[in-house]
From TrEMBL:
<protein>
    <submittedName>
        <fullName>Putative iron-sulfur cofactor synthesis protein</fullName>
        <ecNumber>2.8.1.7</ecNumber>
    </submittedName>
</protein>
<feature type="coiled-coil region">
    <location>
        <begin position="165"/>
        <end position="192"/>
    </location>
</feature>
<dbReference type="GO" id="GO:0031071">
    <property type="term" value="F:cysteine desulfurase activity"/>
</dbReference>
<dbReference type="InterPro" id="IPR015421">
    <property type="entry name" value="PyrdxlP-dep_Trfase_major"/>
</dbReference>
<comment type="similarity">
    <text>Belongs to the class-V pyridoxal-phosphate-dependent aminotransferase family. NifS/IscS subfamily.</text>
</comment>
<dbReference type="Pfam" id="PF00266">
    <property type="entry name" value="Aminotran_5"/>
</dbReference>
<dbReference type="InterPro" id="IPR000192">
    <property type="entry name" value="Aminotrans_V_dom"/>
</dbReference>
<feature type="domain" description="Aminotransferase class V">
    <location>
        <begin position="5"/>
        <end position="284"/>
    </location>
</feature>
<keyword id="KW-0808">Transferase</keyword>
<dbReference type="InterPro" id="IPR015422">
    <property type="entry name" value="PyrdxlP-dep_Trfase_small"/>
</dbReference>
<dbReference type="InterPro" id="IPR015424">
    <property type="entry name" value="PyrdxlP-dep_Trfase"/>
</dbReference>
<keyword id="KW-0175">Coiled coil</keyword>
Amino acid sequence: MANRDKGNHIITTAIEHPSVLNTVQYLHDRYKFDVTFVKPNADGTFPAALIEKNLRPDTILVSMMWANNETGQLLPVKEVGELLSQHQAVFHVDATQVMGKIPVHPLEIGADFLSASAHKFHGPKGVGFLYYNELLHFDALIHGGEQEEKRRAGTENLHSLVGLAKALELALENIESNYQAVEELNHHLLSKLKEQEIPFYKNNFGPSMPHVLNLAFPNENHDLLLTKLDLAGFAISTGSACTAGTIEPSHVLEAVYGKNSDKLKENIRISFSELNTLDEVNLFVEKLSSILK
């Protein structure tokens, strides 16, 4: 809104989290911004060239996730940052899925804005942070008092902010060992599925974070599978956790396979953290196997 005199065009991806996707859609519907939702290639890959192809002289914002929350796919944020270094468009990176799990340095990827949420690195729910380039002018989100450098009015949730900072500090202290632990859980689950001779395929579209595994079981209804696993005490999902309870198929997989694909009803999303154990993985595969068989 603060930079509309420079242009009216926004670019984001069709596989963003609803927190970005729905916000950008609102800007289009309410304020008539021209928005381009960039889809991945037919094979699911997402090179920086897809963003470059849609850049225009009047583009003022590009918003892109670092890693996808449903598949773990890593997007080329550094390449896009380099691309935008010679363009007026401001670059926002949604780093929610990577913060505390891999090294994150906004200047290295050319991010003007970078957002993250505490609960993804075991901090308190309902608190997050926004990094921004101090040279940029942008409107206040919430008007009122002059808290947070007049960027967002409202009394700070101080104890949650302290919890966020401490949780991130602890995550960074053990970042390599935590990553290796999650990789081991991911690989162990896949090997156990193969041992059980369970037919499955991965919704994997290139380099990915091991913390999210999107699996599909041919001709199995994922809603029924989700319900049975939930009753057995296993918390998984069929898409974004923020769309849990909806009957809509995954917009991420729809962007790859098309809205009429049978693959949209076969997938489940499994999330790991270093707090999970190999025993939990074994129990999960055992229960999954008994349900499918």
